[in-house]
């Protein structure tokens, strides 16, 4: 269990917004329990990336690390595993991870297991761009005479562009179904994507509850509206990034194969890319999204019935109830956004 309070509701929960190293500003006195584990064994760390901050020009990483002591310093932590961030094409995406690590072989009464999300996203620069979550543990002497070990993998991808790398049409809509069989989760809905206006809308239904998400990347605002109980939350958005596939656009997606049968079950042909645990497929013709799936589980998002725009402007008009909401749950650094705009304008002047 992480230090301090713990809540996953709503998305963007303040209990997840912990920037200060090494443990998000929470010391050992805030711990609710100390988990007892056996030294040298394999342990599966379960955590959720509560909001996605993928930054295409310089994608971040997530890692799990370990340190000895009651309140260790940043330099005391050693990385057990590290892997690339991924692009779900929705800032307000919750992703569950189940990561196996090799615990150190030496016992300790007071030690810390930590998960970090290193976003590298300049729009997250307030107290840094990295999120920290710590859990207090105790490692007992191993009872096993032979300890299984795993090699620390290097998940870094050698950046290599491919001629098949592509972007979706600038304006389109598509239906989708998101399935996580391990927890009997199913959601479905429709996505509206409009690159010219830098707006998106997600309509999703989960267990007879319907949500609308309106995202305006010019204003930097996202409204998250519960249709059933007529409530709305306001979020801050990261920078706009086009819906694209491959290292040419997203510097962590390696091209695998062209013109394969789409894994979504569609009769069309697809191209496929990989970023660690995640497989991305888009149609060979048109580059429409087809499926986003995971190698470690049967989780997948299947896209279908794609249609080209233009999309009527009223699609992106939030419910009036949302305009009453003025408190932003997850705001971003406006000076960072303004600085980037100035740099882009300066580049245009020099060109």
Task: Please provide a brief summary of the model.
The chain has one helix at 334-350, and strands at residues 35-38, 42-49, 61-68, 78-84, 95-102, 108-118, 130-140, 166-167, 171-180, 185-194, 199-206, 209-216, 221-226, 231-236, 244-245, 254-261, 269-275, 278-283, 289-294, 300-308. With 351 residues, it is mostly beta strands.
CATH topology of the largest domain: outer membrane lipoprotein receptor (LolB), chain A
Total number of domains = 2
Helix-and-strand structural type = mainly beta
User: Quick one: how many beta strands?
Assistant: 20
Radius of gyration: 21 Å
Q: In the CATH hierarchy, what is the class of the largest domain?
A: Mainly Beta
Helical residue percent? under 10%
Q: What proportion strand?
A: 35-45%
* Shape estimate: globular
- Any guess at the CATH architecture of the largest domain? Clam
Roughly how many Å apart are the termini? 52 Å
State the helix count: 1
How does the SSE layout of this entry go?
Layout: E1 35-38, E2 42-49, E3 61-68, E4 78-84, E5 95-102, E6 108-118, E7 130-140, E8 166-167, E9 171-180, E10 185-194, E11 199-206, E12 209-216, E13 221-226, E14 231-236, E15 244-245, E16 254-261, E17 269-275, E18 278-283, E19 289-294, E20 300-308, H1 334-350
Parallel strand pairs: 1-7
Antiparallel strand pairs: 2-5, 3-4, 3-6, 6-7, 8-15, 9-10, 9-20, 10-11, 11-12, 12-13, 13-14, 16-17, 17-18, 18-19, 19-20
Question: Can you tag this structure with a few keywords?
Answer:
351 residues; mainly beta; Coagulation Factor XIII, Chain A, domain 1; outer membrane lipoprotein receptor (LolB), chain A; 11-stranded antiparallel β-sheet; 5-stranded mixed β-sheet; globular; disordered C terminus; Chitin-binding type-4 domain-containing protein; Cellulose/chitin-bd_N
């Amino acid at each position: 269990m992480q230090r301090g309070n713990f809540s996953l509701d709503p998305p963007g929960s303040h209990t997840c917004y912990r920037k200060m190293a090494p443990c998000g500003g929470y010391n050992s006195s805030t711990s609710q329990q100390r988990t007892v584990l056996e030294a040298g064994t394999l342990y599966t760390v379960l955590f959720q990336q509560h909001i996605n901050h993928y930054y295409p020009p310089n994608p971040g990483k997530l890692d799990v690390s370990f340190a000895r002591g009651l309140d260790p310093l940043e330099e005391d932590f050693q990385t057990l595993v590290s892997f690339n961030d991924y692009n779900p094409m929705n800032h307000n995406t919750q992703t569950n991870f189940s990561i196996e690590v090799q615990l150190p072989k030496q016992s300790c009464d007071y030690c810390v297991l930590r998960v970090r999300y290193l976003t590298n996203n300049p729009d997250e620069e307030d107290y840094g761009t990295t999120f920290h979550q710590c859990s207090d543990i105790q490692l007992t002497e191993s009872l096993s005479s032979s300890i299984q070990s795993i090699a620390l993998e290097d998940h870094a991808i050698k950046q290599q562009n491919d001629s098949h790398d592509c972007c979706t049409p600038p304006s389109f809509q598509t239906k989708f179904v998101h399935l996580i069989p391990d927890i009997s989760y199913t959601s479905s809905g429709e996505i509206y994507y409009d690159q010219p206006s830098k707006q998106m809308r997600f309509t999703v239904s989960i267990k007879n509850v319907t949500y609308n998400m309106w995202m305006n990347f010019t204003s930097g605002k996202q409204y998250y509206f519960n249709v059933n109980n007529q409530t709305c939350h306001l979020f801050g958005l990261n920078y706009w990034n086009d819906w694209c596939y491959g290292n040419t656009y997203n510097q962590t997606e390696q091209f695998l194969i062209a013109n394969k049968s789409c894994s979504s079950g569609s009769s069309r042909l697809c191209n496929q890319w990989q970023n660690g645990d995640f497989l991305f497929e888009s149609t060979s013709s048109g580059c429409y999204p087809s499926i986003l799936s995971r190698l470690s589980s049967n989780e997948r998002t299947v896209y279908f019935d794609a249609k080209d725009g233009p999309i009527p402007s009223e699609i992106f008009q939030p419910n009036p109830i949302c305009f009453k909401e003025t408190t932003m749950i997850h705001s971003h650094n406006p000076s960072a956004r303004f600085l980037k705009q100035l740099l882009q304008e300066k580049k245009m002047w020099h060109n």
